[in-house]
Structures are given as structure tokens and as C-alpha cells.
Amino acid sequence: MTRRLHSQYLWAVTSAVAGPKYLSVREHLRRRVSALPEHTLLPPEPVLCAEYGVSRITLRRAVDGLVADGHLVREQGRGTFVTRPAIRHEYRESFVHRIAGFNSVMTEQGAQVGTSVLTQRVVPVQPPVAAELGLEPADDVVELVRLRSVDGTPNHVAHSFLPAATYPGAAEEDFTHGSLYDYLRREYSADLAHARIVVDVGTAAPEEADLLGVVAGSPLLVVRTTVHDSDGRPQVHSFSRLRPDVSQVEFEVSVGGR
């Protein structure tokens, strides 16, 4: 049965999300539709424009983003309906019993992981990465940027940085398959013992949005990981920018060595 989203489910935007106004409208509308049954019919554009106090152009940009992210679907001649995003995959890097990267963990779960290498080069280290890796300004790092997909759907863009003096072969290795961590262990006997993880939120730049199949300005989850050896020396720094509609971040915590 089709239901209509009545105006009482909506209220005017009173606290703006940083950035263009359509992002605020989209976020408020996303929260409303996420709590509604699938197949609920949205009110006509003029009603929504009046509710949010915006033009049709602004409203359409907001709705376009929700359509692209799988929260809404347009049906010709019928209207716009609430739907549900595709099945979300857990973004998991396991650091409890071992350091295991995204590729290893997802493959073990039976998912099909695809990788496209976008950038692979030796570059001078930038200050934020130098601070994470304990490097000097004159040092070089191997920069590795990969687009990762799960079961054919773009999932995230991963940026990894390694000290070039420690892991020179990483600049030439084929990373379209397999795990970066497994490679470091196999080729360099790398001691990957501990990790620090920080999660925050960003927005998709135009080029990044094209890669991930979302609208520019869409919110992304940002997971930053620095892996250290047993003596606390940093070995790898990475940050991954994930589509939140098809992924979620899971943490495991081990207490007392268990």
C-alpha cells in the first residue's frame, strides 16, 4: 500500500548544515524519510518548497542527492517514493587478534572486493602524514590511492602512505589484488602490531563523487588508521573515505589480551 508523507512529518530547516543550503535540506529530509515505511509517497514539490522555504532548484538538488544515495526513487507519472539503500557492508579492519586489512576481512566474509589503483608513486611527505609517520620534511613516502568496491558497488577511496626508505617496493607492486598489509608482511616481514583509528565525517569533492557514484557534497565517513610495530614505531598511515549508504564501520575491542 502506498502512503503519503504528510506535512506534519516535516518542519522548516532551523539549523543549517555547513555548506550550500540544499545540503541542509537534504540532510533534514533524509532524517525524515529514514523513519518512514518504504513506498511512502512524498508530497508534491510546491508543498516541500513551502515547508523548507527554498526554491524548486534547491529542493531538486536535495532530492537528487537522496535518489542517488538510494533513499528515494522517482517513478514517472507517479511521484517520488521512500526506498531503502542497498545492503550495507561492514567496513572492517580487524586489530584484535591480528592486523587484517579491508580486502582480507571482506573476502573472508564472502564478498567480492574490487580494487582500482588510482595513484601509486613516491612523493615528498606532506606535514600531516609526516606527523603520523614520524618522518622528517625531507623524507619521501609511497602514496597509494585505491578505489575499492564491494560486490560491484563503489564503497570507498583508500589513501595509504608508507615510508619510501622502509618499503621501496610498494611503489611498484600490483595492488589491484590482495592486501597491502599481507604484502608488507610477506616482502618485508613487517611487524604490524597496533593501530590507532579515528572516524569523522567529510563531504565528497566532485571528482571523488564521480568515483563513488554519489552527488558532489554528499556526506562521507572518513576512517583514519595509523599502524605501529611492537615498539610503537609507525609503519603505515591510511585514510579511507566511505559511502555511508553502503558501508558501516565496526570496531572490536579486546580487554586483557583476550
What tags apply to this protein structure?
single chain, Arc Repressor Mutant, subunit A, Chorismate lyase, 2 domains, 7 helices, 31% strand, elongated, DNA-binding transcription factor activity
Written account of the structure:
Helix 1 crosses helix 3. The chain starts with a strand and ends in a 9-residue tail after the last strand. The protein is an alpha+beta fold and 258 residues long. The chain is 25% helix and 31% strand. The longest helix is centred in the first third of the chain and has 14 residues, at 21-34. The chain contains seven helices and twelve strands. The strands form four sheets. Strands 6-7-8-11-10-9 form a six-stranded antiparallel β-sheet. The chain has two domains: 21-82, Orthogonal Bundle (Arc Repressor Mutant, subunit A), CATH 1.10.10.10; 102-242, 3-Layer(aba) Sandwich (Chorismate lyase). 33% of the residues are buried. This is GntR family transcriptional regulator. Keywords: DNA-binding, Transcription, Transcription regulation.
Enumerate how many helices there are, as a single number. Answer: 7
Strand fraction: 25-35%
Uncertain stretches of 5 or more adjacent residues: 6-18
N/C terminus separation: 50 Å
Order of helices and strands: EHEHHEEEHEHEEHEHEEE
Corresponding CATH architecture of the largest domain: 3-Layer(aba) Sandwich
User: Could you give me the name of the CATH homologous superfamily of the largest domain?
Assistant: Chorismate lyase-like
* Tally of structural domains: 2
